Amino acid sequence: MQITITGQHLDLTEALKNHAEDKIGKLDRHFDQVIDARVVLKHAPHENPENTADVTLHASGHVFHAVSQHADMYRALDLVTEKLEGQVHSYKEKRQDRRNDNPSGLAAIVEME
Asked: Keyword annotations for this protein (predicted)?
């Protein structure tokens, strides 16, 4: 997975880049079809909370997007990663349910009779 990290009104430190790569990279083990990730870290001192993490994941057949705000940029990255993990988990469950062998709808009623 290719991860692109950019900062708006923010100097990206190596520690911040490494934290973002570690957190977003962990999503790849939950869902191996991720092609690339774009992370935008924003600092807006006139807003409260002033730090925003915006992440977009491009996977084969689907795009995941999440935004999180917090006073601490590291915590904002943690929160956005949790949101994306939830989205990926929900997407995987939905795909699994559609391929499930258990009958549903009218087919289930017919078999029960």
From this structure: Translation regulation
Cα–Cα dist 33/73, whole Å: 27
How is the chain split into domains, by residue range? 2-112
Burial class from Cβ neighbours inside 10 Å (0-12, 13-18, 19+) for residue 41 reads: buried
Question: b/e per residue, 50-88, with b = 16+ CB within 10 A?
Answer: bbbbbbbbbbeeeebebebbbeebeebbebbbebbbebb
d(CA 43, CA 83): 20
Q: Which residue shows structure tokens 């009104």?
A: 9
How much is the pLDDT for 91? 85
For residue 33, the model assigns a pLDDT of 78
pTM, full prediction: 0.78
